[in-house]
Amino acid sequence: MRQAVFTRDQHRCGNCLGHIKEGFTLDPDHIVPRGAGGSDRLSNINTLCRKCHKAKHGEGIAPSIHLVSSGEMTGLEFMWFRKLLREMIPAMARAFDVRLEPKFGLDDQDRWYLPVGDLRRLDRQLLEADEDDQYSSFRPEQYM
Ligand SMILES: [Zn+2]
Asked: Which residues surround ligand 1, an ion (CB under 5 A)?
């Protein structure tokens, strides 16, 4: 069962898109929990990485890029940067039919979270939409 689910999902987390080759531990996860009447059929089981699986059950957060103010930007520069994250990036994502909503202030007012899965989806869409081959997709293996 586990292997059938992982094979169907190409060994990739359904939330953050982390791949087993990138060191992610994968778990099968019931989309509708068994306790709520969910079945054990493959259609009700999704592949999640361990971090996303725990986050779904309220433990920690899914892989995210954390942006924390270092205090080196001026107040105006930080306002522009926050505006870029909060409005411009989601607007660009929407143009490519990707939902990307930076989450602000899970812990405090100076910390931002950008879900890695949303960034990967945006990266894929930008690559597919790039007819002039000017956009190069992010490939982790080039940096490891
Ligand atoms: Zn994940």
From this structure: 13, 15-16, 18, 49, 52
Select, from the ranges 40-49, 52-61, 87-96, the one with the highest average predicted confidence (pLDDT). Answer: 40-49
31: CA distance to ligand 1 center in Å? 14
Centroid of ligand 1 to alpha carbon of 49 (angstroms): 4
Q: What is the pLDDT of residue 125?
A: 83
CA distance 66 to 53: 19
| Cα 62 to ligand 1 centroid, rounded to whole Å | 6
27 alpha carbon – ligand 1 mean position (Å):
10
Does the pLDDT value for residue 7 go beyond 90? yes
Say whether both 69 and 136 belong to one domain: yes
Would you put residue 18 in left (φ > 0), alpha (ψ -120 to 50) or beta? beta
Q: For the chain, what is the domain count?
A: 2
Check residues 69 and 54 and name the one with the higher pLDDT: 54
Record the pTM: 0.76
Domain of 100 in residue numbering reads as 64-142
Tokens representing residue 144 in the block: 């490891």
